[in-house]
Amino acid sequence: MLLQQLVNGLTLGAVYTLIALSFSLVMGILGILNIAIAELFMIGGFLGFAAIAAGLPLPAAVAVGMAGAAAIAFLIEKIAYQPLRDAPLITPLLSTLGVSIILQNVATNVWGSDPLQLPAEWFDRRFQLGPVSIGAMQLVVIGVTVALVALLAYLVQRTSVGRALRAVAENRDIARLLGVSASRITLLAFMLSGALAGAAGVMISLHYAAITPYVGVETGLKAIAVMVVGGVTRIFGALIAGPLIGIVEVLTVAYGGSQVRDLVVYGLMILILLLRPQGILGGARTDLGQRV
Amino acid sequence: MMGMRAHFAGTLLAAAAMAAGASAVQAQSREVVIGAIVPSSGPFAEWGRTNTVTLKMLEKQVNDAGGVNGAKLRIAIYDDAARPAQAANSLRKLVGDDKALAVAGPLTSSACEVTFPVANQLKIVATSQASSKPGVAKANRPWAFRNTVDEGILAKVSVPYFKKNFNVESVALIYDAKDAVSTAISTRIMPAVMTANGVKVLNEKDPLSFNTGDLDVSAQVTKLKSLNPDGVVIGADYSQAVTVIREMKRQGLVKPVIGGTPLISSAILKAAPEIPLIAPATFYATMKGARAERFVAELQPLLRKESGLPPEIEPSMYDANIYEIVSMYIDAVKTAGVSGKPEDLEADRTKLRDHVAKLKGFEGLGGPIGFNADGDAIKAFYIVQGQNGAWETKVRGCSSANGGGC
To answer: Residues of B with CB below 8 A from A9's CB?
Structure first.
């Protein structure tokens, strides 16, 4: 049973990783927490679901989820962040919280509050590896997460856009003096984070073959814990912290009960904040990017 | 002289006509206000929204038929989002601002546990359309009622059927730890009734749980599977149970499932059609009977026309329950000497309470309804089996102590 639980934890952790990366991307560059990312994850899930229901193949569904969530992230940046960027830090945080509530209400009105379910044929094939049973969709979730993280790593480390992102995160004014358009980079960070959250939403909705408008809040909060444990501005800290939190959560439920699940997960987050506030990969205090 | 007499008679007739007209206008302008508290947003929004459509249909039916004693019926509906504090605030608003005669709702046991004491304090009848956690109305007499049957009574009929029909010797428990009735079903009612029926509860001391809104229950189901039970008890409303049932199917745990009334919905039947579901119900959309069939025929097109509801939506048990509750109130206003005058509001609320408390044989959608001393409904119920996409009645029961009154 332990091995099976580790597989369950890894799958859950992969989804947490993608959403935590979404949070990290905006946090690292702007120093603000875009709360609406949790609901972009949910919207991405519904869009992917709709695409599959319309007969599109899986890669197209992932693309639809990512594009839809990125488009909404574009609007969030224009409406709920840009006009408020000179306000105190709490203001954009509150405005994105408002957006998240609106998105949840919109989803409830459009898709209803009952779980949307995919038909039975969407239950994937399972492979039996000794005592462990793993589904094809679980492999897809882990595979897509690894691929997207690698793509993001390449984008941030090896491309001119990535250099601009890092420059703005380091020092907005100097980046502008060097010819980087801070506004465009900010918008790009919002859209990239939206696309990642959308991809995570598609993955989770197809993995469970069901989705509700309320899936974003809990998962989003866990992803914030993942971000903190991994290192707030260290984008790739999430790669370690995601599976860690996923496995800790699953093992806690299996051997301790769901009543103590949140206690353990958020307790771990507080412990990290107390003992190693910069997170596993460090960075929270030393290289927190200025707001753009 | 003749001219004067004719003129006088004409004036008298005109005055009489004016008086009659004024009286008619007065009757039309009078309102009988019934309050309703439903969760139109939040996790049970589907139930709240269909409740709302049901109440609007009833309001129109009553007003089209001439109102209540000539007065217009107005059903003031508030959304509590299934939040206990919001439900209690809604009740205060209905009592203070809307001057409601009585209230239908709230829906969840968690909301009732907070709202019923307020109903007692404000002296207004509140009847829940869905709460079935044992003792919730009993703890809040004399103003709290529930048009539902205690889950403990229902389990005594559903468990023997479950055991016999599926040869169940052992069960494992899983429940939504954040929901009051789900917790009661899985941690108190089912373990006791299963044990009394000779069914071994494999994880009685350590039942598996999850939280409302969880989409991932893989860890719980893996553990459930490792217990190798003959059947599974799910304490959850249908929207949460869908997640568990789908995960059971995904992990290859195809075992019969038993639960309480919150499992009843058409949505759950799609989750894993090959997993048999056993649950009690006082009403379901495909139920036979003239009243039930007419209710479904009238309500279903309205539900499907409403935006925000799935196209395949059907009237739920809680729509039937709230329809019956408000119909009972209207019956009380008509027959219990309720004046409807603002100065008599307090006395009218008391008359209405006394009428409901003594009610017997009120014609509900699934048969006659009355209330026991605990404030819970005495009505017929059905143990239904959901399999391959449809509910089917297997056993009929009656919730009264001696089996009569249904």
So the answer is: 219
Are A182 and A292 in contact by the 8 Å Cβ rule? The answer is yes
Option in B177, B218, B249 nearest A258 (CB): B177
Which DSSP string do the residues of B321-356 spell out, in sequence order? Answer: HHHHHHHHHHHHHHHTT----GGGHHHHHHHHHHHH
Could you report the per-residue pLDDT of A238-251, keeping only the tens digit for each?
888 999 999 999 99
What's at B279, amino acid-wise? A
For chain B, count helices (H), then strands (E).
12, 16
* Whether B228 contacts chain A with CB within 8 A: no
Chain A residues contacting B via beta carbons under 8 Å: 1, 4-5, 8-9, 11-12, 105, 108-110, 112-115, 117, 119-120, 123-124, 126, 133, 135, 204, 208-212, 214-215, 217-219, 249-251, 253-254, 257-259, 261-262
Chain-chain contact of B242 with A210 (C-beta, under 8 angstroms): yes
pTM, rounded to two decimals: 0.78
Q: How is chain A split into domains, by residue range? A: 2-275
Question: How many other β-carbons are positioned within 10 Å of the β-carbon of residue B288?
Answer: 8
Kindly state the tokens that stand for B83: 């939040």
Please determine, for residue A198, whether its predicted confidence score (pLDDT) is greater than 50: yes
B78 touches chain A (CB under 8 A): no
Instruction: For residue range B299-335, list pLDDT tens digits in order.
Output: 999 999 886 677 778 899 999 999 999 999 999 999 9
ipTM of the complex in this document: 0.78
Fold exhibited by the domain B31-149+286-375: Rossmann fold (3.40.50)
Is the domain B152-281+386-398 a CATH 1.10.3720.10 member? no
Question: Residue A261: which of A207, A225, A228, A231 has the closest Cα?
Answer: A225
Residue boundaries of the structural domains of chain B: 31-149+286-375, 152-281+386-398
Same fold, B31-149+286-375 and B152-281+386-398: yes
Instruction: Please determine, for residue B18, whether its predicted confidence score (pLDDT) is greater than 70.
Output: no
The whole-number pLDDT of residue A85 equals 82
- Would the pLDDT of B69 be above 70? yes
Which residues of chain B from 28 to 67 reach within 8 Å of chain A, CB to CB? 41-46
At B25, is the pLDDT very low, low, confident or very high (cuts 50, 70, 90)? very low
Q: Is the peptide bond before B191 cis (omega within 30 degrees of 0)?
A: no
Is residue B367 a contact partner of residue B404, using CB atoms and an 8 Å limit?
A: no
Region A32-42 average pLDDT: 93
A2-275 has which fold? ABC transporter involved in vitamin B12 uptake, BtuC (1.10.3470)
